[in-house]
């Protein structure tokens, strides 16, 4: 049977207005989850480098569990599993943000650990010799330098989290892929629509990459 496929550019471009409503949901889930994940990452990252074993152990457990399991499984557990434990339903948006938060938090924890440990020990010792307490040395000397070094990997994590939101169509979140699926169901133009979905994701992540490069050129990140 001779089947000839012709790409329909008109159908592709006509799908864009139907896909655009998914962008705010994609950004809300990704950056909302990342904001919470950053807080989680700081807490567990500092616990990870604590000299106290009873603080390090739960941090190691959390990091290994959420880095070692797929985010799709995590969001399905949050959306379908947690309501059975809590006895209350969890809406799709909350589940998506929570999944990004706990997943990115595990990776950010390692970014925080690496950033803090990358600062030379001599700077801490010099701060203490100048009369600063350990807390003051960390707050005013170690952390500002570590944060600058963390920005590039944090930017990479943001890009990964934006792309991860595409998996949340399985729970009905109205992000880009879900909007595309809804449109395809009535037009049967899967190739054209998914190409536009990919290009919209590329536009978002490329914009973020350009912003990060501008920060690097201005010397606001890195060494």
Automatic annotation (TrEMBL):
InterPro entries: AA_ABC_transptr_permease_3TM, ArtM/GltK/GlnP/TcyL/YhdX-like, MetI-like, MetI-like_sf
GO terms of molecular function: transmembrane transporter activity
Lipid bilayer topology: Multi-pass membrane protein
PROSITE patterns noted in UniProt: ABC_TM1
GO terms under biological process: amino acid transport
Database matches in SUPFAM superfamilies: MetI-like
Compartments where located: Cell inner membrane; Cell membrane
Domain ABC transmembrane type-1: 23-212
Segments passing through the bilayer: 23-47, 59-82, 193-212
Domain of life, source organism: Bacteria
UniProt keyword terms in alphabetical order: Amino-acid transport, Cell membrane, Membrane, Transmembrane, Transmembrane helix, Transport
GO CC terms of this entry: ATP-binding cassette (ABC) transporter complex
A family per Pfam: BPD_transp_1
Record family assignment: Belongs to the binding-protein-dependent transport system permease family. HisMQ subfamily.
Function noted in UniProt: Part of the binding-protein-dependent transport system for glutamine; probably responsible for the translocation of the substrate across the membrane.
Protein name: Putative glutamine transport system permease protein GlnP
Organism: Halomonas alimentaria
């Amino acid at each position: 049977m001779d089947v000839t496929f012709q790409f329909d550019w008109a159908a592709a471009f006509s799908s864009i207005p139907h896909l655009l409503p998914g962008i705010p949901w994609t950004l809300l889930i990704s950056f909302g989850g990342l904001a919470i994940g950053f807080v989680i990452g700081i807490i567990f990252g500092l616990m990870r480098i604590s000299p106290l074993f009873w603080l390090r152990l739960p941090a190691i457990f959390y990091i290994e569990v959420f880095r070692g399991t797929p985010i799709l499984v995590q969001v399905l557990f949050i959306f379908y599993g947690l309501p059975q434990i809590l006895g209350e339903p969890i809406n799709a948006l909350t589940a998506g943000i929570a999944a990004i938060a706990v997943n990115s938090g595990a990776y950010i924890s390692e970014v925080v650990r690496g950033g803090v440990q990358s600062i030379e020990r001599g700077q801490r010792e010099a701060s203490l010799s100048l009369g600063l307490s350990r807390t003051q040395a960390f707050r005013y000397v170690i952390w500002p330098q570590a944060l600058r070094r963390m920005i590039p990997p944090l930017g990479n994590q943001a890009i990964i989290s934006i792309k991860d939101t595409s998996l949340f169509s399985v729970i009905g979140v109205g992000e880009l892929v879900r909007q595309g699926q809804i449109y395809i169901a009535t037009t049967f133009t899967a190739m054209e629509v998914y190409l536009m979905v990919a290009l919209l994701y590329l536009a978002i992540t490329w914009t973020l990459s350009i912003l990060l490069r501008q920060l690097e050129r201005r010397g606001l990140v890195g060494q």
